[in-house]
Task: inverse folding
């Protein structure tokens, strides 16, 4: 078979793509009209489950960017069981994440020993002002609604409870 | 535009009509090429949709772009040669209008119709080089200068193969009048069979290929876009232009693509005409008047086919290097076209 | 090799001749050179590299790259960070194949600690490593087209690279910066469906390679632009420490995946190290094309037999690395990427020397750009393939 | 044999790497001050400052033709720590003893380079002391052309001079920049201008901050 010159092969490739796009549609997504669902593990935004946070400062200290700020105070809470002693709990006053600094490494979520921080795949939270990227406790708690279940694992994976 | 209509009108009205006709003949192909090929076909070849927001399927995108460019600040570099810098885009665009002036669109639909049409055509097509050189030199930018000089070298190198390729057509048609060439093709016959007329693409196929390559180079489209060369010279001679001056360059680029496709269709594809044998026309005088309406449409279709090829190549190929281009022009194209002329001449004498 | 030598000879002769001719002309016409400043903002530098080129006409008399516009001081920053924090930092060095940046650092830390990741983790590491190589090099193949004036390949590269990024994101959570590698293993296991999806994507990628080959590599214009341009002979490549595809294109048969034993899974599968004798730009590009193909083969074979088991070795929760020094380098998409980690038994490294591939690869530029034409600057830079983050760190 | 008396030397020997050290010793003699062979892993040698360039030549002749990198190490502990101090608290006392790593050393600054044998695939890490008063070593540019940029980088980052280098301009920093960023006494301002958010103490970390018993599970 005689060799087709590369010049014509190249033309063929573009023509084929043209044909494919016309018949099968484009590979792109028309973003504001249709949205792709990010995978469940996607690191979009960090959500805070406020009730679980004991303000232990572990996330603050392990953040490479120093972008988490926690303030809290100690408080006496009513006893768990009737007749028990009142407990001392840490009350969270402030929990801010500065998304202008955050580099989405996920270390804070990993180190949290009390399951208070979660990744949510939500990504549409850009702001016209950079100061608005500082999400406070209330806003971080709102993201909790968007946190998905952890995905099933591939065959051969060792069953492991979420710590 | 239409000579028939214009015949009994006062001079100013004729002029107005011609100007309007010229604008339509330049801008309509340019707009169509930009939307259909640059926006849509390129996107489709790259598995995407292209502009979709402005108008249905982005059809109004071009107007949006024009609006955007018109709003932009017209920046002149501090050390630029101001007058030349400002004139340059207009010179380039003027070349396009000069080109379209001699293209016949129908038996009576033409702006001017004179005997040395082809000669004039090839002469004014190099006016754009002047504009590009002016733009490159006056911008006071090294990239622009390199781009301008490359453009000058390249356009001059490709003028010659283009001329030589057209000579074959002229020899065959026996006239330099573009209208005459159209008639010669449609009224011609191939070995006594006149069902298709005699479009010169069949007899002058080498010439056609050389002409199209030269057009590609003349238009500075890939693979001959070294004067623009975004990845090397950052748009070359257009680097410093903004706002409506850039728009002028942009329009000129695609309008010239359209006009050259028109010219190629006139020279090689039979122009506006249909084979005369279909309607038993013997000469141009027999051609019905409705051809003045259908003719431009036929021309437009042929132009789109040729522009498609130009753009298709543009979107598929990488770019040559300047010295390779020169070598290609002088060592390949010119000898081939000379041989082509020789063979045509011999055959012309023989038959 | 003889063809390479003759090419260099010819190039040098042409250069000397042109210099002599120009010297004569300069005396007669008093032309002087022009200094062309390519960058820091220039499409061909895809980043902020600046090249100061002294031109004579369109020929380069000398050229000098000037980098540092993107220096982020990672070597200093690692000194104030703990080991887990460093991985999130170093995967920003070569941002197109970021998972591959984490691996050598983690391996160096593991070497110092004397632990080894379990087999399943090694397997998945290797798969992700190769996926990031594909993500990186496939973009190179597209970008190559843009540098040489063909606009379509880059969109094809983005189109098919997207699938690879989706896989990486589904596994690690990050498209660009996975931060998935941990000392002793991996952060998480693969999500369900990964294997089947990856197989399909590898098929797409092989099609992409064929398309690029037809569209670009087979194109006569492309070949005339790249063949014989920017020839790097073997010994020069050695001296400058060129690595990866750049070295292999100069005939150096060296691939760190094959030539050193690391706790990774490359030695468990069958693949080929491609070399090319020419050392020119075409060879460099061609090698990379073949490497994408080999990577898809590696991934395919690895997917067949991922061992079951844990993905984390037993490591203390707060990681302190014992005192010592370790050097680990891997064959990253851009070339040899190595970390010289000095530990003093602390939570973080005492000093990290990051040996990035592009720094060495691009240091050859002043030598190689002598006497070429302006368009060849672009060809050579594109074929050397650097990433700014990888030069400046 | 020539290894320093570190416990690692007890691991069964690595004849190839030990032979390399021996070979180098025959080339440069007593200028090979110290060496360390980690079997199956790597080789470290320390040479005297004067023999720096000679070592490069010798190793190249021995077949170590591949230039991997050249850099330096500042062995002084950082006086600033990790920048996590409380600015209101009294300054923290820090250990500032200079302690060198493998293959020993006497000075605070050391030049470090690595050469690789392209067919044996064995590398050698070469170190050499650089005196504090006159931090200059001979340049390797004439031996390995690729050392050019690495020496420029080491020059601006550590302030080490390379005698015979054609062009020791700054690569990254502006020309008039003062100080050598990778020296430990150069402050990392990003960590000093802002107090560490982790200073605020609400409760000690669970299990205490020195909890090392827990597993990853």
Result:
């Amino acid at each position: 078979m005689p060799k087709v010159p590369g010049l014509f092969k190249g033309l063929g490739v573009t023509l084929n793509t043209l044909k494919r796009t016309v018949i099968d549609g484009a590979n792109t997504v028309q973003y504001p009209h249709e949205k792709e669902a990010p995978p469940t593990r996607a690191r979009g935004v960090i959500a805070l489950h406020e009730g679980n946070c004991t303000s232990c400062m572990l996330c603050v200290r392990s953040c490479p960017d120093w972008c988490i700020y926690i303030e809290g105070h100690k408080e006496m809470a009513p006893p768990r069981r009737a007749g028990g002693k009142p407990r001392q709990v840490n009350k969270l006053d402030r929990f801010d994440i500065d998304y202008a600094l955050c580099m989405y490494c996920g270390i804070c979520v990993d180190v949290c020993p009390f399951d208070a921080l979660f990744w949510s795949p939500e990504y549409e939270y850009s702001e016209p002002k950079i100061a608005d990227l500082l999400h406070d406790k209330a806003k971080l708690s709102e993201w909790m609604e968007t946190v998905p279940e952890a995905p099933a694992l591939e065959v051969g994976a060792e069953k492991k409870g979420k710590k | 535009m239409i000579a028939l209509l214009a015949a009994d009108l006062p001079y100013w009205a004729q002029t107005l009509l011609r100007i309007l006709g010229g604008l339509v003949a330049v801008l309509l192909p340019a707009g169509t090429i930009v939307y259909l090929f640059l926006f849509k076909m390129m996107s489709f070849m790259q598995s995407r949709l292209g502009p979709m927001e402005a108008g249905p399927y982005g059809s109004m995108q071009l107007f949006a772009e024009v609006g955007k460019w018109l709003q932009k600040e017209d920046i002149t570099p501090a050390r630029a040669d101001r007058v030349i810098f400002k004139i340059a885009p207009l010179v380039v665009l003027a070349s396009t209008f000069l080109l379209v002036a001699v293209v016949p669109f129908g038996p009576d639909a033409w702006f001017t119709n004179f005997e040395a049409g082809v000669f004039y055509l090839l002469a004014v097509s190099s006016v754009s080089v002047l504009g590009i050189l002016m733009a490159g030199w006056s911008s006071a930018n090294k990239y622009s200068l390199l781009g301008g000089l490359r453009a000058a070298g390249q356009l001059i190198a490709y003028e010659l193969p283009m001329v030589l390729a057209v000579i074959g057509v002229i020899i065959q048609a026996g006239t330099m009048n573009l209208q005459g060439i159209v008639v010669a093709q449609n009224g011609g016959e191939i070995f006594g069979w006149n069902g298709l007329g005699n479009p010169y693409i069949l007899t002058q196929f080498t010439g056609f290929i050389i002409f199209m390559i030269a057009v590609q180079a003349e238009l500075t489209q890939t693979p001959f876009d070294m004067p623009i060369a975004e990845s090397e010279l950052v748009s070359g001679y257009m680097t410093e232009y903004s706002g409506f001056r850039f728009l002028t360059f942009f329009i000129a680029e695609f309008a010239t693509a359209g006009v050259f496709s028109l010219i190629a269709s006139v020279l090689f594809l039979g122009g506006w005409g249909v084979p005369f044998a279909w309607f038993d026309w013997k000469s141009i005088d027999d051609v019905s008047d409705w051809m003045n309406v259908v003719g431009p449409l036929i021309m437009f279709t042929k132009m789109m086919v040729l522009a498609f090829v130009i753009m298709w190549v543009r979107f598929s190929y990488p770019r040559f290097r300047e010295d390779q281009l020169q070598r290609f022009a002088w060592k390949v194209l010119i000898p081939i076209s000379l041989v082509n002329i020789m063979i045509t001449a011999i055959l012309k004498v023989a038959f | 090799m003889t063809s390479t030598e003759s090419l260099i000879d010819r190039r040098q002769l042409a250069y000397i001749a042109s210099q002599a001719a120009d010297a004569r002309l300069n005396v007669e016409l008093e032309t002087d050179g022009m200094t062309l400043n390519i960058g820091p903002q220039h499409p061909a530098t895809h980043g902020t590299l600046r090249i100061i080129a002294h031109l004579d006409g369109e020929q380069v008399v000398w050229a000098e790259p000037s980098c540092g516009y993107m220096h982020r001081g990672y070597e200093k920053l690692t000194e104030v960070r703990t080991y887990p924090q460093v991985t999130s930092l170093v995967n920003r060095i070569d941002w197109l194949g970021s998972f591959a940046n984490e691996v050598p650092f983690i391996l160096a830390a593991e070497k110092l600690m004397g632990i080894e990741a379990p087999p399943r983790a090694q397997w998945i590491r290797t798969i992700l490593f190769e996926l990031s190589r594909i993500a990186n090099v496939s973009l190179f193949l597209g970008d190559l087209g843009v540098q040489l004036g063909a606009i379509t390949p880059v969109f094809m590269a983005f189109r098919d690279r997207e699938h690879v990024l989706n896989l990486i994101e589904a596994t690690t959570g990050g498209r660009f910066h996975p931060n998935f590698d941990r000392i002793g293993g991996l952060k998480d296991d693969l999500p369900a469906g990964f294997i089947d999806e990856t197989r399909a994507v590898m098929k797409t990628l092989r099609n992409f390679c064929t398309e690029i080959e037809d569209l670009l590599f087979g194109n006569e214009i492309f070949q005339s632009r790249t063949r014989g341009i920017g020839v790097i002979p073997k010994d020069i490549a050695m001296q400058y420490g060129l690595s990866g595809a750049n070295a292999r294109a100069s005939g150096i048969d060296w691939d760190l995946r094959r030539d050193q034993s690391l706790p990774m899974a490359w030695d468990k599968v069958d693949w080929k190290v491609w070399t090319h004798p020419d050392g020119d730009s075409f060879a460099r590009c061609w090698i990379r094309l073949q490497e994408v193909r080999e990577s898809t083969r590696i991934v395919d074979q690895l997917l067949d037999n991922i061992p079951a088991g844990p993905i984390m070795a037993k490591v203390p929760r707060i990681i302190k690395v014992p005192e010592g020094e370790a050097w680990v380098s891997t064959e990253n998409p851009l070339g040899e990427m190595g970390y010289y980690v000095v530990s003093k038994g602390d939570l973080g490294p005492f000093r990290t020397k990051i040996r990035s591939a592009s720094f060495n690869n691009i240091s050859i530029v002043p030598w190689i750009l002598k006497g070429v034409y302006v368009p060849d600057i672009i060809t050579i830079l594109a074929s050397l393939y650097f990433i700014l983050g990888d030069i400046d760190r | 044999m020539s290894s320093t008396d570190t416990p690692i030397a007890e691991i069964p020997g690595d004849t190839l790497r030990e032979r390399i050290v021996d070979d180098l010793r025959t080339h440069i003699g007593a200028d090979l001050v110290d060496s360390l062979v980690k079997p199956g892993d790597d080789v470290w040698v320390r040479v005297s400052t004067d023999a720096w360039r000679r070592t490069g030549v010798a190793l190249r002749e021995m077949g170590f033709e591949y230039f991997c990198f050249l850099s330096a190490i500042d062995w002084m502990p950082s006086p600033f720590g990790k920048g996590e101090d409380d600015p209101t608290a009294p300054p923290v006392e820090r250990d500032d003893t200079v302690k060198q790593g493998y293959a020993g050393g006497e000075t605070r600054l050391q030049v470090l380079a690595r050469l690789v044998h392209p067919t044996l695939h064995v590398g050698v890490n070469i170190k050499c002391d650089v005196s504090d008063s006159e931090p200059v070593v001979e340049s390797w540019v004439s031996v390995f052309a690729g050392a050019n940029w690495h020496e420029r980088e080491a020059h601006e980052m550590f302030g080490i001079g390379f005698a015979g280098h054609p062009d020791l301009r700054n690569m990254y920093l502006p020309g008039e920049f003062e100080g050598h960023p990778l020296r430990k006494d150069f402050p990392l301002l990003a960590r000093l201008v802002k107090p560490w958010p982790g200073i605020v103490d609400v409760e000690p970390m669970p299990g205490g901050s020195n909890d090392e018993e827990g597993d990853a599970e």
Observations:
- Chain C has 16 helices and eight strands.
- The radius of gyration of chain C is 22 Å.
- Residues 74-358 of chain C form a domain with the Cytochrome-c3 Hydrogenase; chain B fold (CATH 1.10.645.10).
